[in-house]
Amino acid sequence: MSFLSKFHDYSGLAFSKDKCNFIVGKSINQNMIHIIKRICGFQFKKLPIKYFGTPIYKGKKKNFLFEDIFTFIQKKLSNWSSSFLSFGGCLVLVKSVLNSISIYLFHTLMPSFAICNRLERKINKFFLGEKVILR
Length: 135
Description:
Elements: H1 2-11, E1 21-22, H2 30-40, E2 43-44, E3 49-51, E4 54-56, H3 67-81, H4 87-101, H5 103-109, H6 113-127
Helix pairs in contact: 3-6
Organism: Dendrobium catenatum
Protein name: Ribonuclease H protein
């Protein structure tokens, strides 16, 4: 734990133990995980985890990594589809809000064509005036 204290002394930055986690490889046993938890005071997490809203994972990209963004967009579309928006209003919302929501996540994860098509279908349904229903 002294290395964390030294880091704090030199940098002036502090760790929030409630927000700090650690991950380990498969070869690390439970006993070692408990030792790390006791020394650092951080919580153990398994992949995938979220870091600044972006999933950190190992292996092949899975569709479930994008479910949070689809849920968020679905809620926004459901709220907006019940209001009376002009064609221009829909265009402004789609361009400025919906497309900016996913830019950070999509730049970091590089989604598959299936994910992009799913998002595009949702935006098109909203833009063309079809009701979007929460699942």
